[in-house]
Amino acid sequence: MDEVTKVYEDIKLQRELEEIYSQYHNSIKIFIGQLEVLQNKFPVEILNEIRAAFSHIAKAYVCNSKEVAWENVNKAKGHIKRAQLDAYKYMCYAFRKYYIEFRELYKNVDLSHVNNGEFINELSKTYLEKKKNTILTYVSIGLGILSVVLGLVAFI
User: Fold this and answer.
1) Is residue 142 scored above 90 in pLDDT?
2) SS (HEC) of 7-38
């Protein structure tokens, strides 16, 4: 790229970068906050993907070739997608853990009378719906069968 056509002057590329940041800001960052509250930790896999994504973004801004800039933006998009999936997976693990702990804690308590019997039905229904949504999420973003299986394993 010459001085006149740097990355920040390429509108299409700039929109891609905005979308990457939007995905980080509107999903990954929120999941991270929830994970820190639920598990009091920040999973290193997510951090590594974020680091890699923003490293590619920085490379796109300083390179001297439009092709190299696009190559780095596409790599950043892949890292953001993986970070989203990792965050989603960790949220599934966290909620699964709380569900199992709750069921174990109250295994000898008759919960069928709570809220006129609706509580336990809604709890089970919600858990099963989350399982289904996990699979649909993995499928909808075009991942292979291995990723779908890994998403399901998070709830088994």
Assistant:
1) no
2) HHHCHHHHHHHHHHHHHHHHHHHHHHHHHHHH
Q: How many helices (H) and strands (E) does the chain have?
A: 6, 0
Per-residue pLDDT tens digits for 67-115: 999 999 999 999 998 998 888 888 878 877 877 888 788 888 888 888 8
Q: What is the pLDDT of residue 75?
A: 97
Residue 45: partners with Cβ closer than 8 Å, 6 or more residues away: 86
Give the domain ranges of the chain: 1-94, 110-156
Q: Among 56, 62, 46, 64, which Cα is nearest to 16's?
A: 56
Q: Which one-letter DSSP state was computed for residue 154? A: T
